[in-house]
Specification:
This protein is elongated. The two termini are 33 Å apart. A hairpin with a 2-residue loop joins strand 4 and strand 5 (56-66). A 5-stranded antiparallel sheet has the order 3-2-1-4-5, with no helix packed on it. Helix 2 runs antiparallel to helix 3 (108-125). By secondary structure, the chain is an alpha+beta fold. 10% of the residues are buried. Helices cover 35% and strands 31% of the residues. It is built from 3 helices and 5 strands, in the order βββββααα. It has 2 domains: 3-66, Beta Barrel (OB fold (Dihydrolipoamide Acetyltransferase, E2P)), CATH 2.40.50; 71-125.
């Protein structure tokens, strides 16, 4: 059974292309994707049947062999390090919360810094 990796796929267009291991581009229609799969990421390793279409080879009965490596997951922080950062962020938020209870808003620099910290933590958690 031929194999290859997804070059690109457009959900809006309903098709994409596979770079086969033999070096040719194979048309990939959304209808050839496994049941329940509506889109597929570039780099996903596939096995597929091939039929000769009007414009060249076309993939049939696609099977996902290996999803692409997530760049986000590959760049994730170690869990212990993230836990320590979250504990520090909780202390900072607690201090800011106490100030707010006494009518003191954080200044612009503090607000910007805590925003960056919280966005960084969120980025680590959202993958």
């Amino acid at each position: 059974m031929p194999s290859g990796k997804v070059k690109w796929f457009s959900l809006e267009k309903g098709f994409g292309f596979i770079a086969s291991d033999e070096g040719e581009d194979v048309y990939l229609a959304a209808s050839a994707l496994p049941e329940g799969v509506t889109t597929i990421k570039p780099g996903t390793k596939l096995e597929f049947g091939v039929a000769e279409g009007r414009r060249g080879p076309q993939a049939l009965s696609v099977k996902i062999v290996e999803p692409p490596v997530s760049m986000v997951a590959a760049n994730r922080m170690a869990p212990d390090d993230l836990a320590a950062i979250m504990e520090d962020a909780i202390k900072i938020l607690d201090r800011i919360g106490n100030g707010l209870r006494h009518g003191r808003h954080p200044n612009a620099v503090e607000s910007e810094q805590i925003g960056r910290v919280l966005r960084g933590i969120a980025g680590q958690l959202e993958s």
